[in-house]
């Protein structure tokens, strides 16, 4: 009974049942701790843990450590880890995952070396951490150390190489694999799609000895990505019976449409979903809400939302995030209040959405109230994403000291997003000293990305500190760090047209830049940007 309550997020009922239980075993405690921690109620999970008369159950310790780690509270997790009477491999891997997924690879590497016992999960966590951080040299060296690399290790390595543009090397890894199952083929297929090599992906897809639903979804998403919507539709129609689009396939396809703002193809999928009778599936319905919202069709998103019979927390979150994304801050806050009126308990994702809405709409007071409500009313520990929103809210309003103080006092590790929000606010309000500090912190976390130094250079230029501008440019040039080219796209009739900042091969480039010049002039005349900000050029 309690399992049913917890896994359906009926925490109040589960807690009442838990309190009435005369005899509680380690499984009951572990279940309560796991479900509270999973939903962001870390303090409640801790209280359950502290109430245990017998703390010899390793599963309960691991459940709470997992809660700390997944909620970004690594120092608390490590403290609890150090207090464990007996640690097992799960304990070590849980803590290791916290370090790797937060990008703290120095700590992760040292922690890994301390482990007396390691399994394939341990090795792959570190390998994935290096690839996610963009440290491919370290990833290559670490891969060579792995005893008998599994298919997952090979797939992780080739995916990491492809993610950072090393497709040829990824192909080399794929060709050298002694064992290739569908997971490996799918990883290589995704690698080609990520690098816009759809023709190569099609060749690979045709060579695959075995295809699953992921294979089909990946190749379809590749055609959508480059605007071949008709081809994508044909593939949907020709999927063999055993791989026919199911709820998961449709949800994945809709997520691709959302990420590319490909509304036209998304609407086609919507019609197919209705035809196949999947509209009552919550995952599909929620994916539709998100797709329409990210395509800017907020009314269509609301229509889908209104047609759902049994709205869950994800449904509410999807529409709240949609309002936030499209600049409807007040509507997002009203929807949050409506959600509370229906007695739906908000979670961490809910507050990311509504705080983002306050950020975009400049609702500082509402943002602070909701941030406090999250912890005081619902007992949800803020994640890095929540702090990012609040730093941005305060920073945009010119309350830079409060934003910095919030960073200084928060329990979670400061992320690139948090320092980036502060840096952007410093540019807006011309605070050079704090900008310099934030940029250095950001560059420490993301040494392979130029965005922090480019923005800092622009802040120096705003303040007339041209010597500092030259210093940043020289540093970038001397270290061979190149600016990532900007990219945007639009959906035009039945095509998705992609534009890249360093690509002048587009047939109508001259017309595009003439139109851009006209728009820039009009913006200048409306005084939306001052002259120095418009004149600034990104360095690279």
Automatic annotation (TrEMBL):
GO MF, one example: RNA binding
Organism lineage: Eukaryota, Viridiplantae, Streptophyta, Embryophyta, Tracheophyta
Start-end of each PPR repeat: 25-59, 88-122, 150-184, 212-246, 312-346
Protein name in UniProt: Pentacotripeptide-repeat region of PRORP domain-containing protein
Pfam family, one: PPR_2
Keywords recorded for this protein, A-Z: Repeat
Signal sequence, start to end: none
NCBIfam families: PPR (TIGR00756)
Gene Ontology terms: biological process: RNA modification
């Amino acid at each position: 009974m309690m399992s049913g309550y917890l896994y359906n997020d009926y925490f109040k009922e589960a807690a009442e049942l838990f309190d009435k239980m005369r005899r509680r075993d380690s499984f009951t405690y572990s279940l309560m701790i796991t479900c509270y921690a999973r939903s962001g109620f870390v303090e409640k999970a801790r209280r359950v843990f502290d109430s245990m008369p017998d703390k010899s159950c390793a599963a309960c310790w691991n459940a709470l450590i997992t809660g700390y780690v997944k909620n970004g509270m690594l120092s608390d997790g490590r403290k609890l880890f150090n207090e464990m009477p007996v640690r097992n491999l799960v304990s070590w891997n849980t803590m290791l995952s916290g370090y790797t997924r937060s990008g703290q690879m120095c700590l992760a590497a040292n922690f890994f070396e301390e482990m007396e016992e390691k399994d394939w999960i341990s090795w792959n966590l570190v390998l994935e951490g290096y690839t996610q951080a963009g440290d491919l040299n370290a990833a290559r060296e670490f891969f060579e150390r792995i005893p008998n690399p599994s298919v997952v290790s090979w797939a992780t390595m080739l995916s990491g190489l492809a993610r950072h543009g090393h497709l040829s090397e990824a192909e080399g890894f794929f060709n050298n694999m002694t064992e290739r199952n569908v997971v490996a083929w799918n990883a290589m297929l995704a690698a080609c799609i990520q690098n816009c090599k759809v023709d190569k992906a099609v060749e690979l897809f045709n060579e695959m000895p075995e295809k699953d639903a992921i294979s089909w979804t990946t190749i379809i998403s590749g055609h959508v990505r480059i605007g071949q919507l008709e081809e994508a539709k044909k593939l949907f129609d020709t999927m063999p019976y055993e791989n026919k689009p199911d709820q998961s396939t449709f949800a994945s396809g809709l997520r691709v449409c959302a990420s590319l703002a490909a509304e036209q193809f998304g609407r086609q999928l919507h019609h197919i979903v209705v035809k196949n009778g999947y509209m009552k599936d919550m995952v599909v319905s929620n994916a539709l809400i998100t797709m329409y919202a990210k395509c800017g069709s907020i009314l269509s998103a609301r229509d889908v939302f209104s047609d759902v019979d049994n709205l869950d927390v994800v449904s509410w979150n999807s529409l709240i995030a949609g309002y936030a994304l499209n600049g409807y801050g007040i509507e997002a806050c009203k929807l949050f209040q409506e959600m509370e009126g229906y007695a739906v308990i908000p979670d961490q994702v809910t507050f990311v959405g509504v705080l983002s809405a306050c950020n975009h709409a400049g609702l500082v007071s509402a943002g602070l109230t909701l941030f406090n409500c999250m912890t005081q009313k619902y007992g949800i520990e803020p994640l890095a994403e929540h702090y990012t929103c609040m730093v941005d809210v305060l920073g945009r309003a010119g309350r830079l000291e409060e934003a910095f103080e919030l960073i200084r006092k928060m329990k979670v590790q400061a992320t690139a997003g948090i320092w980036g929000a502060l840096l952007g606010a410093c540019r807006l309000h011309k605070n050079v000293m704090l900008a310099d500090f934030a940029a250095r912190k950001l560059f420490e976390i993301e040494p392979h990305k130029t965005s922090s130094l480019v923005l800092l250079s622009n802040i120096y230029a705003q303040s007339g500190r041209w010597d500092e501008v030259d210093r940043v440019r020289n540093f970038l040039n001397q270290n061979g760090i190149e600016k990532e080219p900007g990219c945007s796209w639009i959906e035009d009739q039945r095509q998705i047209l992609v534009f890249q900042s360093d690509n002048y091969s587009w047939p109508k480039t001259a017309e595009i830049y003439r139109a851009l010049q006209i728009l820039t002039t009009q913006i200048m005349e409306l005084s939306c940007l001052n002259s120095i900000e418009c004149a600034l050029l990104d360095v690279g």
